[in-house]
Amino acid sequence: MFTLRRWWDKNALRLAGFGTVIGGTYLVLQTQSALVDEAYNTISQALTPNSRQLDTLKTAQVEQLQNELQELRTQNQQLKQLASYSAAVPTQGILAPIVLRSADNWWQQIVIGRGSADGVAIDHIVVGTGGVVGRVVSVSPHTSRVLLISDPSSRIGVLISRSRNMGILQGTRANQAVLQFFDKRPTVKVGDVVSTSAVSQLFPTGLGVGKVIELNLNKSLAPEAIVEFTAPLANLEWVTVHPHNPNTTEVIPVTPAQPAAK
Amino acid sequence: MSISNLSPLVRNGLHISILIASVGLCLILLPSRLPGMEILGTGPSWLVMWIIIWSLNRSIWHAATAGIVLGLIQDGMTFPTAATLGTVPTHVLSLTIVGVLAFWLHKQRYLDNTILSASIAAFFLTLVSEFVTGLQYFLETAIQQSPAASMDGLNYLWTNQSSVVLIAAILSGFWMPILYYPLNFWWQKISVTSKFG
Question: A102, A105, A233: best mutation site toward chain B, by most B Cβ within 10 Å?
């Protein structure tokens, strides 16, 4: 009895530690190391878009579809007056992940994970969920740098879808941009859809860009409007790259109409 | 393993490779926005931090050269098209001023070899570098377009960029220790055993 008591005094702590370790390992075995998987999941959750970002992307997608619908309606009305018309077939585009952001706080750029080896070249158009995002300015074998439309050096020819008033859109490093109209008295109101126009050589016509949120029609130089981009530039994860050649104006093949010889 | 036991060739090779590796790490971290290292899409100014640590215990020419070299590299990472020397706005100006100011602060004993002074210096010198870049944009618009256009642009600059600049400065001061401890330790060690500056 006495020896047992002495053994216990000596080894109780050691036994408790050993038991805890064995018990813990048995628990891990029973749950099939769910703890490790959960820890990894928690860590990788930080690297995946959260639900708020997904909501923003979904809302932006709905807005983009509505903008395109608006543009198509207006185009359709005009086309009904033409004899016959066949538009160029839009290409599928290369899907690219956004890998890096800008290397300083002034240039608005992103780096995407597709390069010349995947068929991306300079001046290709980059479109994200919600609308136009920018154009490719530099290409390496496996990455490309995209200049966003929010950069002040990005000046896009745009028009108001409803009234077809044209202007130049210039970024302000934020999610809003300044649209300067060509006309002295443009027909525009808050909520109007803005899309690229035929004046823009860097971007093809008809791509949704944003919505008017504020009007400053009494500016001295030219009437201005503040446009908010429909694409959430800060929250994007994936974009598509479409080939575009800015040297030619977009030639849309028109099949000659049969003269209405009635 | 003591540094003085190594041959000069190995020592110099180690010095150069750590130099290149630390600059490379800063360059890779610069456009990344790792979660936890960014606030509202803005990250720290790693090159400003690196130059501050480099300018401790070195001559003014070392500091200025580092500013010029890193400014050119950052220009290469940000300009949309391959540009010639002298394109404004450039990071060469801002980073060289940061290097010279860090050297001057060190000479004036404001920036001593403590982590707190290094972090505070990182905060203020990031503000300085962003201010110099903003000034270049302002002057470029004033000269190329008109003073009125530059005042217009200043309005947007102030509303959009002031918060970005402040966030970058705070993050730079916050993340300074991660660069300061290893780099300063290594460079002090190698300066003791050799006169490799």
Answer: A105
The Cα A94–Cα A85 span in angstroms is: 28
Domain locations in chain A? 2-45, 49-246
Q: Is the pTM of this model over 0.80?
A: no
Instruction: In whole angstroms, give the CA distance from residue B75 to residue B66.
Output: 14
Residues of B in contact with A154 (CB under 8 A): none
Q: How many CB pairs under 8 A join A and B?
A: 63
- The whole-angstrom distance between residue B49's C-alpha and the CA centroid of its chain comes to 5
pLDDT digits (tens, 9 = 90+) for B28-76: 899 888 888 899 889 999 999 999 999 998 889 989 999 998 998 888 8
Please write the tens of the pLDDT for every residue from A181-222. 998 889 999 999 999 988 878 888 888 899 999 999 888 778
Q: What is the domain count for chain B? A: 1
ipTM above 0.90? Answer: no
Q: Which domain CATH number covers B67?
A: 1.10.1760
Burial class, B121, CB count within 10 angstroms (exposed 0-12 / middle 13-18 / buried 19+): buried
CATH class of A49-246: mainly beta
For residue A47, list chain B residues with Cβ-Cβ distance below 8 A: 35
Q: What per-residue string of b and e applies to A162-172 under the rule 16 or more CB within 10 Å gives b?
A: beebbbbbbbb
Domain that holds residue B184: 3-193
